[in-house]
Amino acid sequence: MPKRVPDHRTSRQQKLQRLLDKGIDPYPPRVTRTHPNADARDLFLRQVQSEQGESPTVTVAGRIIARRGMGKNTFIDLRDSTGKLQVQLRADLVGDAYPILRDLDVGDFIEASGPMIRTRTGEVTVEARSFNLLSKSIRPLPEKWHGLRDTEQRYRQRYLDLIANNDDIMPTFVQRSRIIEAVRSFMNARGFVEVDTPVLVPIAAGALARPFVTHHNALDQQLYMRIATELYLKRLIVGGFDKVYEIGRIFRNEGVDQDHNPEFTMMESYEAYADYTNVMSMVEEMVHHAAQTVFDSSTIQYEEHSIDLKPPWRRLPFCDAIKEYGGIDLTPYLQGEATTDDLIVEARQKGFDLAPGPVHQVYDKLLSQAVEPHLIQPTFIIDYPMAMSPLAKKKPGSPHLVERFECFVVGMELANAYTELNDPMEQRRRFEEQEEARRLFADEETDRTDEDFLLALEYGMPPTGGLGIGIDRLVMLLTGQTTIRDILLFPQMRTRD
Q: What is the DSSP letter of 253?
């Protein structure tokens, strides 16, 4: 009967046991690393260049990603977050520790100490005098791990994706961090104060979105995950703050596609004594600043498009955009001379797929289908129909429009902003209209009435410019990624049974 060959995991467990039998702790609590890999390499190159004495002695640490043995001489590629570095382990230099190499595998973490040299092939190398196991990997990396391409596995097991495709994807997430840092430094430099607002709220208001519902046991109260930070930030403007912002997670019970995830990161800001024109200028300057700070350029490449982020950006009124790209004049619909059903019929005749629903949804779908795909270079669509914007102030001289803009780049919405409505009576009337639309259409995405916010507004809020900018989409734009899952470390996935 043929002998059963143990699987790789069993083999590694056997190696782990042999290490334990030798009195070696496979998961020690201390590491003595002196330099990250990149710093060790730079130190050696600087010393070689300046011709200063002996080569530096370092202790480096990382994951074994490759090993090559030649008798009593073994080369190991060690990788940490700064990059790969070769380590040479020779039996005559590491002595009695050399046989331990037989129980080490690709995937294990080790530290190695010794002087730095160049091998005969010219590769910068740590010539180890000692080494220690830091963490034994029990499960082997996937087959052909260095070319992991299974998309679902990459998203479900992001740690494997980071191991396998480190050089390709790690820079994107480092850039994400730097982009957020650039946004934060930009806002701080303009005098904004960063604040925190509740994630669990009694009323899910401030946006047109379906909320996630939860229950607080101690309070015996139904609560919602926030769908926006807007109404709490505006309470702070009422309270006396002039400039506030928050960068945080938002939760919307919606579908998943290339630029939507049920939880995402947004930056919202509110500035007293400003309007939407001031906010427009701030947005284009902020995005330009982030691109210059992180990529040292005002031009980025997104697929086949070269995108110029240098201000000023194009400004295009909503109704003009619908007429230019959709061939539909919205004037009779805004003035009540024709109905929403009439608009749906006309839009269908022009090839757009609109379904019956609240008027704000019809306008939004028309914009998405007729206009957005054409907005490649940065464009502000401004002056929206009032029905789409229950929290925005009316545009003077235009009774059916409000001072609102959305920013689009490469056909993707990047930001949404208003001159904020600060008339409490008008705000209540708008909320009531939204509630009626919810009743008529059973529409869970219609904005909700927040009585506590209306109470705050009655104490007086100064003229205010508000902004919401999608951090995830900003990262997508600046890093050239076409799906939101590639800039989220842990995108939402359906749970496997």
A: -
Helix (H) or strand (E) holding 431: helix 424-441
Residue 424, pLDDT score:
95
The pLDDT of residue 497 is 65
The rounded distance, in Å, linking the Cα atoms of 450 and 341 is 30
Do 439 and 449 form a contact (C-beta atoms < 8 A)?
A: no
Token pair 């040479």: residue: 88
Intra-chain end-to-end CA distance of the chain, in Å: 37
Q: What is the pLDDT of residue 144?
A: 57
Domains and CATH numbers, the chain: 8-140 (2.40.50.140), 166-313+377-486 (3.30.930.10)
pTM: 0.90
Nearest to 25 by CA among 138, 172, 132, 131: 132
Scanning 296-423, the segments in alpha helix (DSSP H) are 318-321, 331-334, 340-349, 359-370
Distances (CA, A) of 46 to 86, 112, 120, 379: 18, 21, 19, 47
Phi and psi for 107 in degrees, rounded to 5? 110, -25
Task: Specify the DSSP element, H or E, that contains 151.
Answer: helix 151-156
Residues 6+ apart with CB under 8 A from 142: 148, 153, 160, 164
Mean pLDDT by 10 residues, the chain (497 residues): 63 96 96 96 88 84 93 95 96 95 96 96 96 96 65 87 88 97 98 97 87 95 95 97 98 90 96 98 98 97 97 98 97 94 95 91 96 98 93 93 98 96 93 77 65 95 98 97 95 83
Phi–psi pair at 492, nearest 5 degrees:
-70, 130
Q: Are 317 and 371 in contact (CB under 8 A)?
A: no
Rounded-to-integer distance, Cα 285 and Cα 309, Å: 9
Opening angle at CA 388, ends 366 and 376, nearest 5: 50
Maximum separation of any 2 CA atoms in the chain, in Å: 93
- Where is 452: in which H helix or E strand? helix 451-458
480's tokens:
């050239």
Produce one character per residue of 95-115: b if its CB has 16 or more CB atoms within 10 Å, e if not: eebbebbebbbbbbbbbbbbe
* pLDDT value for 164: 86
Could you tell me whether strands 314-317 and 379-385 are parallel, antiparallel, or unpaired per DSSP bridges?
Answer: parallel
pLDDT of residue 105: 95
